[in-house]
Amino acid sequence: MNAQDIQRMAVIGAGTMGAGLALSFAVAGIEARLFDISPRQLEVGRERIAKALALFQQEGVVSPEQARAVPGLIPAYRDRAAALDGAQFVLEAVPEDLALKQRLMAQMQQEAAPGTVLASNTSALYITQIAAQCPRPELVCGMHWWNPPELVPLVEVVKGQRTSEATARLVYELCQRVDRVPIMVKKEAPGFVGNRMQLALFREAMHIVEQGIADPQDVDRAVKHALGFRWSFIGPLETADLGNLDTWHRVASYLFPFLSDAKEPPARLGQLVAQGHLGVQTGQGLYDYTPQEAADKVRRRDLYFLRERRLVKEVSGN
After folding, report:
1. Which residues pair with 10 in a beta bridge?
2. CA atoms in the 13 A half-sphere facing the CB of 1
3. Can you list the positions of beta strands (E) in 6-108?
């Protein structure tokens, strides 16, 4: 089987990621069965899908006819066996709990048709460990989608030690079919590729704030209006090539000794968590948010991501 043969798939878990994953496949014309044991979670997932589709239609990503048809390609299931019956590809999106994912993947490999590829959406866990209890680990692969998955193009395809080349290639090509930009993570490593870089930048951003060099607002502005502004078209390694490597070598030689090399999370981050200030969901984190401000932030983020994605595709072809 190749990626073009897949007409039916199942998404296991209807949370924030699961709903967006199902929508991503359905927009590409693939039936995406959305399973969850919680009827309330399925309802919330449906609401997220409806809001995203409204934005897609507003921005011309889908036609009115497509917007009406897509929900029919996302049937809801509370019976996992029924959701898996006839599914040609399965993607789990349950919480980041290794024992839970191990148990679930092993059970689903027994329940799904022989030869079915199972993918785990994880941002950090080793695929080799997730597949450890599976009788056919060669059919298990990792997929790290970024939140919100219906908007962010990148998907990290992660090979476990026993993932077959055919499995990894199928998953990679399926990402392309659903209009995503995949990268192949050839060797398991904590955080894969994207999160390693994201956390390195976060560590330095927090270090700058804790050292009193700049306020959080200005740190974020530096990223949004300089680093991030460039990185949406040229990555950090391309940036170095364009800026001349001898210059980057001199700057790195001078600057590296002053950068944070902390091996523990920043103290300020731990203090905020201990105080229950978790960000948007609690109304206070590194910033303060009213409920309306939080909702508006998410709305404007989604609109920006959608328009940015269109622009990047138009200019770079990715």
Report:
1. 33, 90
2. 19
3. 8-12, 31-35, 76-77, 89-92
